[in-house]
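Private note to self, pasted from the team thread so I don't lose it. C-alpha cells:
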C-alpha cells in the first residue's frame, strides 16, 4: 500500500473526487495510486494485482475523466471482460462514478436479447463493456462501430485465457483502430498474456502491486476435514450457529450447486444460486438478493470466482477443494475486498487431501485441519432420491428428500482411506488416492503441511462408529 497518497494527488477532477468520496474510498490502493497517473498521461499500462485490490476503479476513473473532457456520443472505450457478471459489474460501477454526467455505458453479453445491445452499438454509447463471444457475434453481424475507439481495456486477461477466449479477443482486436490506448489488467500475468501484451501494446508501463500469487493477508484460513456425505451437514451447522454475516459457497459442478441449494432450502436457509445453466435474469436476481441481504448465502460454481465484487462478504466456503492454488486465490479473494478482513473455510474430504496439499505447497502455506466443536461426525450416508430440476438447471424443493439427522454420522479418523480403485463420490471421475497430508499439530489439530512428505503406512480407510 502506498503511503501519503490521496486521490486528490492523482490528478483527478473534483467531480470524480466527489464520486470517490460518495463510494466510501478513503485512499487509493497501490494499483490505483500507480496506474491512474500513467493512464491519465495516455500511457499503455499492464496492471497486475491480487484480486480485490481495486483494479476496476484503477482504469475507470482516468477513463471517465478523459470522456468528460470531450463529450461525444460515439463509442470511445471498449472493456473486454471474461464473464457477464464482471461486464455488468463494470457497467454498474461506471454508473456510480458518472452520476450527474452525460456519460453512458452499456454491457454486452450473451444469454439475453440482442435488441438493446444492437441499438447501443449502432447509435454509440461512450463505453461498451462486453464478453468476447457476444461482441464478436455483433461484429460479424455488422452491428458494431468502433471507428472512433480511443481506449481498449482487457480486464481479467488471465481469466479470458483460462476460458479459451483468446482467439475471439485477437479477432476483435483486428477490427479496432490501431491508434489507441490499451490497458491490460489481470491478477496474474501468464506467459500467453505477456505475449499478447507485447503484440498489441506500445511501450506499456508495467505496474505490479503486491504478491500476485498470494491471497490477501487479511483472510483467516480454516480447514475442516470431513467425509464427503457430511459436507452439507457441517455447512448447515456452521450457518445455524451464527457468526456468519454473508457467505459465498463454491462447488465443483453445477449439479452439486443445485443439490446444495436445495438442501439449504429444506433446512430453512435461503440461498441464491449462480452457475452457467442459470438464465441471466436468474443470475441477476440471485446476485441482487445476496447484495441486499435478502439471502445471506450464495451458492456458485467458479463462474463467480472472478469479477464478483460484493462488499461485505464475511466468509467464503470451498464446499469442494479447488483444483489449483490460482483457483483458491480467486475464490477466497471474494472476501477481504480492498484490505477488509474475511474468513475462508475449506471442507476437505479424504479424496481431496492431495489437492489441498498441492495448494498449500504452491502458496507456501500450512493449513490446520480443525474440528467443529460439538458436531457429530458419526452419521452414515443418507438415502436420498435424486433432486428435481426444472429448465435452465433451477432447483425445485423435493418434499420427499431425506436428510441426515443430527445424531447420525460416520466419523473420519486416521488410518487408511479408500483404495485406488474406489470411485470418487458425486459422479466425478476416478483418480488414485494419494497419501494423507494431515499431521497432528498443537492441541491435537490435524495439520496439512505444505510440500511435506508423508510416509505410507498402508491404505487408509473410513472407520465407522463401531470400529
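Design output:
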Amino acid at each position: 500500500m502506498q503511503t501519503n497518497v490521496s486521490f486528490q494527488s492523482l490528478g483527478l477532477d473534483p467531480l470524480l473526487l466527489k464520486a470517490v468520496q460518495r463510494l466510501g474510498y478513503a485512499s487509493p490502493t497501490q494499483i490505483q495510486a500507480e496506474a491512474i497517473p500513467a493512464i491519465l498521461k495516455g500511457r499503455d499500462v499492464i496492471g497486475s494485482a491480487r484480486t480485490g485490490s481495486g483494479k476496476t476503479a484503477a482504469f475507470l476513473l482516468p477513463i471517465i475523466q478523459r470522456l468528460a473532457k470531450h463529450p461525444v456520443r460515439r463509442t470511445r472505450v471498449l472493456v473486454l471482460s471474461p464473464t457477464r457478471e464482471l461486464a455488468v459489474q463494470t457497467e454498474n460501477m461506471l454508473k456510480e462514478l458518472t452520476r450527474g454526467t452525460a456519460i453512458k455505458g452499456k454491457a454486452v453479453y450473451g444469454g439475453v436479447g440482442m435488441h438493446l445491445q444492437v441499438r447501443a452499438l449502432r447509435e454509440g454509447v461512450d463505453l461498451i463493456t462486453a464478453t468476447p463471444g457476444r461482441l464478436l457475434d455483433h461484429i460479424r453481424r455488422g452491428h458494431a462501430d468502433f471507428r472512433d475507439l480511443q481506449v481498449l481495456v482487457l480486464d481479467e486477461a488471465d481469466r479470458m485465457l483460462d476460458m479459451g477466449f483468446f482467439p475471439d479477443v485477437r479477432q476483435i482486436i483486428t477490427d479496432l483502430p490501431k491508434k489507441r490506448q490499451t490497458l491490460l489488467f489481470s491478477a496474474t500475468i501468464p506467459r500467453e498474456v505477456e505475449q499478447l501484451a507485447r503484440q498489441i501494446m506500445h511501450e506499456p508501463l508495467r505496474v505490479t502491486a503486491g504478491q500476485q500469487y498470494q491471497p490477501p493477508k487479511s483472510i483467516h484460513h480454516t480447514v475442516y476435514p470431513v467425509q464427503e456425505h457430511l459436507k452439507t451437514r457441517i455447512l448447515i451447522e456452521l450457518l445455524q450457529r451464527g457468526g456468519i454475516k454473508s457467505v459465498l459457497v463454491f462447488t465443483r459442478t453445477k449439479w452439486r450447486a443445485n443439490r446444495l441449494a436445495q438442501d439449504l432450502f429444506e433446512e430453512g436457509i435461503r440461498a441464491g444460486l449462480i452457475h452457467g445453466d442459470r438464465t441471466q435474469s436468474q443470475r441477476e436476481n440471485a446476485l441482487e438478493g445476496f447484495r441486499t441481504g435478502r439471502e445471506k448465502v450464495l451458492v456458485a460454481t467458479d463462474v463467480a470466482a472472478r469479477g464478483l465484487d460484493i462488499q461485505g462478504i464475511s466468509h467464503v466456503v470451498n464446499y469442494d477443494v479447488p483444483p489449483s492454488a490460482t483457483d483458491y486465490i480467486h475464490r477466497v479473494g471474494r472476501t477481504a475486498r480492498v484490505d477488509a478482513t474475511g474468513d475462508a473455510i475449506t471442507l476437505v474430504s479424504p479424496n481431496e487431501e492431495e489437492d489441498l496439499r498441492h495448494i498449500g505447497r504452491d502458496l507456501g502455506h500450512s493449513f490446520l485441519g480443525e474440528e467443529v466443536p460439538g458436531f457429530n461426525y458419526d452419521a452414515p450416508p443418507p438415502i436420498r432420491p435424486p433432486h428435481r430440476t426444472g429448465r435452465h438447471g433451477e432447483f425445485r424443493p423435493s418434499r420427499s428428500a431425506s436428510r441426515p439427522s443430527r445424531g447420525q454420522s460416520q466419523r473420519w479418523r486416521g488410518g487408511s482411506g479408500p483404495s485406488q480403485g474406489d470411485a470418487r463420490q458425486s459422479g466425478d471421475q476416478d483418480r488414485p488416492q494419494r497419501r494423507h497430508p494431515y499431521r497432528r499439530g498443537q492441541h491435537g489439530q490435524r495439520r496439512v503441511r505444505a510440500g511435506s512428505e508423508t510416509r505410507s503406512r498402508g491404505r487408509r480407510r473410513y472407520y465407522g462408529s463401531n470400529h
